[in-house]
Automatic annotation (TrEMBL):
TM annotation in the entry: 6-26, 72-92, 99-115, 121-139
Every DUF7134 domain range: 1-146
GO cellular component assignments: membrane
Keywords of the record: ATP-binding, Kinase, Membrane, Nucleotide-binding, Phosphoprotein, Transferase, Transmembrane, Transmembrane helix, Two-component regulatory system
Annotated InterPro entries: DUF7134, HATPase_C_sf, HATPase_dom, Sensor_HK_TwoCompSys, Sig_transdc_His_kin_sub3_dim/P
Example of a GO MF term: ATP binding
EC class: transferase
Residue span(s) of domain Histidine kinase/HSP90-like ATPase: 284-382
EC number(s) reported in the record: 2.7.13.3
Catalyzed reaction equations: ATP + protein L-histidine = ADP + protein N-phospho-L-histidine
Domain Signal transduction histidine kinase subgroup 3 dimerisation and phosphoacceptor as annotated: residue spans: 174-238
Identification of the protein by name: histidine kinase
Length: 385
């Protein structure tokens, strides 16, 4: 019935028509000839078939045919169809058109009753008016419920849309975070492996001992990168709850180990730390580590032979400042990126900028005053008491 409302309305019209037909054939009342009565009965119920699609047209047609039906005194069809027409006009056409229709309907019925029913028109009019008022109240109630359900469905649809949008944003942010993590792990490890492999190829004949040490560094770095990749992939597949112990994320407190690995890869690194980095929030601490890691990785890849790097980390109650500078490499084609400027370079520099901005910090990348390359970052932080 809900999928095909005209079917239900047709059955309703047929039921009302059958009542009038039964009254015509079985009640001992003065009736007009059947060729007048039956068409009048059909005409008064016929507009109900399209009452949902054309509520006002249907209602006014019922009003017009009910006048004829009442004049011929054919039964109850005019009263029932009039009540249904009022309900339909209020529910499907709206309050104002419904109110206008009710006024016209009541005036027409009062005029008809006063003209054709003598002294009985007052009680009949009161009875009909009460029926019509009841239909109006019922229509108001149903219309209000329909409007409430429509508003509720609209809000639910909006909530579903917002939830889907929030989920898509969260997925995009998580993918970006994972991409940065994968880049940090893979780029650093591969850079160390490439540098060590190049050194081993040069030293394999002249200095086998140094070449063997480079190969061991390659092996250790590759195993570490592979373990980190497996950990990230397990998290992506939802296998992080397996029996294997989870490896903690690196943080600013492990910068000395990072500097030592870069020294082993062939770049002298001087590490200067001021403040207690172990007190930093976990996210800021990881961001500091990744910024230093990416900067040293770029030094390994671009600074050239004989270059050295200096890492300075200073932390106070308001912010942690990071500076990584090297003294080699011809990267003057890149432009220093200040606040609001686009960071040149690949995913590594973009990842550093994103990490700094996540915590409301700033990042500057560009040539150093005395040559080489310099990365400066400042991340706001408030230590817990």
């Amino acid at each position: 019935m809900r999928a095909h409302p005209m079917v239900g309305d047709s059955l309703l019209a047929a039921a009302l028509l059958s009542i009038d037909v039964l009254i015509f054939f079985f009640e001992d009342l003065p009736m007009p000839p059947w060729y007048l009565a039956l068409p009048a009965d059909v005409l008064v119920v016929l507009p109900l078939v399209v009452r949902r699609r054309h509520p006002l047209w249907s209602a006014y047609l019922v009003l017009a045919f009910s006048v004829l039906h009442s004049e011929l005194r054919l039964g109850l069809g005019a009263v029932f169809c009039g009540a249904i027409a009022i309900y339909t006009a209020v529910v499907y056409a709206g309050r104002k058109p419904g109110a206008l229709y009710v006024v016209v309907f009541v005036l027409a019925n009062v005029a008809q009753a006063a003209i054709g029913q003598g002294t009985d028109w007052v009680p009949n009019t009161i009875t009909s008016t009460l029926i019509f008022v009841l239909c109006w109240v019922l229509g108001e109630y149903v219309g209000a419920r329909r409007a409430y359900h429509a508003e509720l469905e609209a809000r639910l649809h909006l909530l579903e849309t917002e939830r889907g949008q929030a989920a898509r944003i969260a997925v995009a942010e998580e993918r970006g975070r994972i991409a940065r993590e994968l880049h940090d792990v893979v780029a650093h490890a591969v850079s160390v492996i490439v540098v060590q492999a190049d050194g081993a190829s040069y030293m394999i004949r002249s200095n086998p001992e140094l070449a063997e040490r480079a190969v061991r560094t390659i092996s250790d770095t590759g195993r570490g990168a592979l373990a980190e990749l497996r950990r990230l992939l397990d998290l992506l597949r939802g296998e992080g709850a397996s029996g294997e112990p989870r490896v903690p994320q690196p943080d600013a407190a492990t910068l000395a180990e990072l500097a030592e690995r870069v020294r082993a890869a062939g770049v002298p690194v001087r590490l200067d730390v001021e403040g207690e980095l172990g007190d930093l929030p976990a996210g800021v601490s990881l961001g500091v580590y990744r910024i230093v890691q990416e900067s040293l990785t770029n030094t390994l890849k671009h600074a050239g032979p004989g270059a050295s790097a200096t890492v300075r980390v200073r932390q106070d109650a308001e912010a942690v400042d990071v500076e990584v500078a090297d003294d080699g490499g011809d990267r003057g084609a890149l432009v220093a990126a200040g606040e609001g400027a686009e960071v040149p370079g690949g995913n590594g520099l973009i990842g550093m900028r994103e990490r700094a901005h996540v915590f409301g910090g700033t990042l500057e990348v560009g040539p150093g005053p005395g040559g080489g390359w310099r990365v400066r970052a400042s991340l706001p932080v408030r230590l817990s008491s």
